[in-house]
Structure formats: C-alpha cells, structure tokens
Amino acid sequence: SIPIAKQLASIKALGKSSELEKAFATVALVYNNAADPKGKISKAETKNLLQTKFGSFIQGQENKPKYQEIISTLDEESENKIDFEDFMILLVSLTLMSDLLQEIKNVKTTK
C-alpha cells in the first residue's frame, strides 16, 4: 500500500493547509486505509490501529478503569464495526485521558 505521507502529499487541497488540517487528514487516511468498502472498521481492527498507530497516547493507560472499559468494548463484539465518527470520538477520549496530553500541555511555545 501507499505510505500515508505520500497519500497526504497527493491531496492538492491540503497544499497550504495548517498543521491541524493535515493532522485530521492523516487520521482520515489512516482510518480509510483500514476501512471496508462501506467505510467501517471492525472493533478488532480498531484495537489494532490504536495499538500500532496511537501507542504513545495509550501507553501507560492499561490500569485506568476508563481505558479498560473502552478496550473491553472493542473486545466484546467483534462482528460489530465502527464508523469514522465513532473512531474519532474514541481517539479524542483516549487523548484526553492520556499521560502524554499533560506533557504536550507543558511544551514551551515561546523562547
């Protein structure tokens, strides 16, 4: 398959986009590359994407009850698939509870 960075570069509308727009486009591309023809991904694939593409955010979360609840939901019904909207909600939820978010908040923005 074509690397995400190359796919991102091929989207002409993103040529002069902000970092935020490119970040969201990257999320959409990662999702779309895993999605079936109906635009959905299995819960097992969702869990795999989180572990392989979002590992820095979920690292160290294993003992948090909310994280365990989210992951157990993905383990329970493997036939059910999720759409892009649910995937984004999941990413935002995991980001908000991550230890990495605090580190990001502490990054200096001026010299």
UniProtKB/TrEMBL annotation:
GO molecular function annotations of the record: calcium ion binding; calcium-dependent protein binding; transition metal ion binding
PROSITE patterns from the UniProt entry: EF_HAND_2
Domain of life from the UniProt record: Eukaryota
Recorded coiled-coil stretches: none
InterPro entries on file: EF-hand-dom_pair, EF_hand_dom, S-100_dom, S100_Ca-bd_sub
Domain EF-hand: 62-97
Official protein name in the record: Sentan
